[in-house]
């Protein structure tokens, strides 16, 4: 039996850093939303575990791939050694702040659970996902969610539908590097603040207020890649005359668009720079 699963990307509508933790991670408050940009993952029973990657040369196919890490975590918690052949068709830009690898890991956990007749429930899947990375737990359910602690403690709010302009400027951002080069930050942002600033304007479709309130503390990082992204951000804002912010640890940048706005935006000046430019939607 072969299953083919879509693996969506995400954007961070906001991200505040509340402070550094003893374990070297940062306590953050972030608002996630999945978008209609997908990798495709096929999984079928086989004599042994193998992974083939198509569509990208910058994604490892061995033990460093988050898909293999997901298989290891599945075995650790269920005692079932996955004997599957997995093919990853990579479409999501890598190192782009879009959670591609995290999404793949979550989707493979769900796919293995389905192939092996559901040995664990969703709650256990979220726990297993949190062991793989800070963004992975979000992708077990997706849609609109607020994440706190490392980003793995989640509150889900269904999903909203809005248009975005997404630009990937072909800059690789290492998440660890971006966090390592942050200035000291000690905010006290709570879930209620994210609901007031982001979720309520979003649900009311008050995108003007939403754009005003959106924020990403990782734009303050002095990592080289972020300084380059900030130059790109200025170029995009001048070109499309609307607020743009970096997604996650970058390098992607996006704008939330009013309905009907995308028909009025000429993206050719941005495409001429060799950047990956797409009109997409939240899902
Ligand atoms: C930037 C975001 O993508 C926003 O959604 C996440 O915070 C990062 O999630 P992720 O890519 O799954 O990150 P992980 O693979 O868990 O961690 C990579 C590295 O980023 C840093 N890291 C990550 C998450 C976090 N809350 N604090 C951190 O300091 C740590 O140095 C960690 O070793
Ligand atoms: N299945 C995978 N897909 C993409 N990247 C992977 C995968 N497995 C491991 N990686 C590695 O993870 C790193 C970046 O992954 P990813 O594309 O998720 O970054 P990102 O979009 O910035 O994610 P995030 O928003 O969580 O920081 C790269 O170094 C990449 O080689």
TrEMBL record:
<comment type="pathway">
    <text>Isoprenoid biosynthesis; isopentenyl diphosphate biosynthesis via DXP pathway; isopentenyl diphosphate from 1-deoxy-D-xylulose 5-phosphate: step 3/6.</text>
</comment>
<comment type="function">
    <text>Catalyzes the phosphorylation of the position 2 hydroxy group of 4-diphosphocytidyl-2C-methyl-D-erythritol.</text>
</comment>
<dbReference type="InterPro" id="IPR036554">
    <property type="entry name" value="GHMP_kinase_C_sf"/>
</dbReference>
<keyword id="KW-0414">Isoprene biosynthesis</keyword>
<dbReference type="GO" id="GO:0005524">
    <property type="term" value="F:ATP binding"/>
</dbReference>
<feature type="domain" description="GHMP kinase N-terminal">
    <location>
        <begin position="65"/>
        <end position="143"/>
    </location>
</feature>
<comment type="similarity">
    <text>Belongs to the GHMP kinase family. IspE subfamily.</text>
</comment>
<dbReference type="InterPro" id="IPR014721">
    <property type="entry name" value="Ribsml_uS5_D2-typ_fold_subgr"/>
</dbReference>
<keyword id="KW-0067">ATP-binding</keyword>
<keyword id="KW-0418">Kinase</keyword>
<keyword id="KW-0808">Transferase</keyword>
<protein>
    <recommendedName>
        <fullName>4-diphosphocytidyl-2-C-methyl-D-erythritol kinase</fullName>
        <ecNumber>2.7.1.148</ecNumber>
    </recommendedName>
</protein>
<feature type="binding site">
    <location>
        <begin position="93"/>
        <end position="103"/>
    </location>
    <ligand>
        <name>ATP</name>
    </ligand>
</feature>
<dbReference type="InterPro" id="IPR004424">
    <property type="entry name" value="IspE"/>
</dbReference>
<feature type="active site">
    <location>
        <position position="10"/>
    </location>
</feature>
<dbReference type="GO" id="GO:0019288">
    <property type="term" value="P:isopentenyl diphosphate biosynthetic process, methylerythritol 4-phosphate pathway"/>
</dbReference>
<dbReference type="InterPro" id="IPR006204">
    <property type="entry name" value="GHMP_kinase_N_dom"/>
</dbReference>
<dbReference type="GO" id="GO:0050515">
    <property type="term" value="F:4-(cytidine 5'-diphospho)-2-C-methyl-D-erythritol kinase activity"/>
</dbReference>
<feature type="active site">
    <location>
        <position position="135"/>
    </location>
</feature>
<keyword id="KW-0547">Nucleotide-binding</keyword>
<dbReference type="InterPro" id="IPR020568">
    <property type="entry name" value="Ribosomal_Su5_D2-typ_SF"/>
</dbReference>
<dbReference type="Pfam" id="PF00288">
    <property type="entry name" value="GHMP_kinases_N"/>
</dbReference>
<dbReference type="GO" id="GO:0016114">
    <property type="term" value="P:terpenoid biosynthetic process"/>
</dbReference>
